[in-house]
Specification:
Layout (H helix, E strand, L loop, with lengths): L31 H8 L4 H10 L12 H5 L4 H4 L9 H9 L6 H20 L4
Helix pairs in contact: 5-6
The structure holds iron/sulfur cluster and zinc ion.
Length: about 130
């Protein structure tokens, strides 16, 4: 069951009757007052999980600021784009994400390198 659809926990939130502003501080504003409220909130973990599910960039959720939550996105949210397999760009994406290079991308890369070498030779370089 997804907490996104089940938001009954909001009824028990410590911040239920508080203004939103406290939990959505402007850049450079103090986040401690909001965190203090979250500290005593009975639905902290639901709130936190919810923020990861909706992948929100903004605000204090479950006592954690945006910066603190950033590293905890589910992996499928962290992947910005699918790898275009069988291309040189795909090869680069494999490398950047430390994913084993697939056959298609390896071939594309070999071809790319071959072309580069060919070009260098044509220019008389080495
Ligand atoms: S953890 Fe904080 S932001 Fe989340 S519901 Fe509780 S008081 Fe509100
Ligand atoms: Zn690939």
């Amino acid at each position: 069951m997804s907490v996104v659809k089940e938001r009954h926990w909001v009824e028990r939130a410590a911040c239920k009757d508080m203004g939103h502003a406290l939990f959505f501080p402007e850049l450079g504003e103090d986040v401690r007052p909001a965190k203090e409220v979250c500290e005593g909130c009975p639905v902290r973990s639901e709130c936190y999980t919810y923020s990861l599910e909706i992948s929100t960039h903004h605000g204090i959720w479950g006592g954690k600021s945006e910066r603190e939550r950033r590293g905890n996105r589910p992996a499928w949210k962290a992947e910005p784009e699918p790898i275009r397999h069988g291309t040189e760009a795909g090869y680069g994406a494999h490398k950047r994400r430390s994913i084993k290079v697939c056959l298609g991308c390896r071939n594309a890369h070999r071809e790319y390198e071959g072309r580069q070498k060919h070009n260098r030779l044509q220019r008389g370089g080495n």
